[in-house]
Predict the structure.
Amino acid sequence: MMRSLIAALSAALIAAAPQAPAPSPMDGDWIVDLTAKAGDPPYRQPMTLTLAADGTVRGSFYRSTIEAGRWKSDRGRTCVSFRTSDGKGPYHTAACLVGDGLQGQTWAEHRNFLFNWNATRGTLR
């Protein structure tokens, strides 16, 4: 009887223990295709994302540290939004996971451009 009670309590404690969230499918290294026009030579830059359980995003994009990053899963998709800088002004980036890739855009008001891009999982060599 005592063994059964101990076993039941142990099982309940294990089940009630907080579980680490599963890694996000957006976590990891990405290769962002920033090629301006079809037919141009490929222009790619690295991005690394780490999505925390508290909704924050850390990492880097275009060799710049991600600042004020946030993520959310809602309406059937997972998206990130963050800011980076080139030392002259901010770049605001948003991207959503679509299939096995990312579809995103980056806006730089100080450079007067909005750029749509795609990314695939991997690292640049």
Q: What stands out?
A: Helices lie at 2-16. Residues 2-16 form the longest helix (15 residues). The radius of gyration is 20 Å.
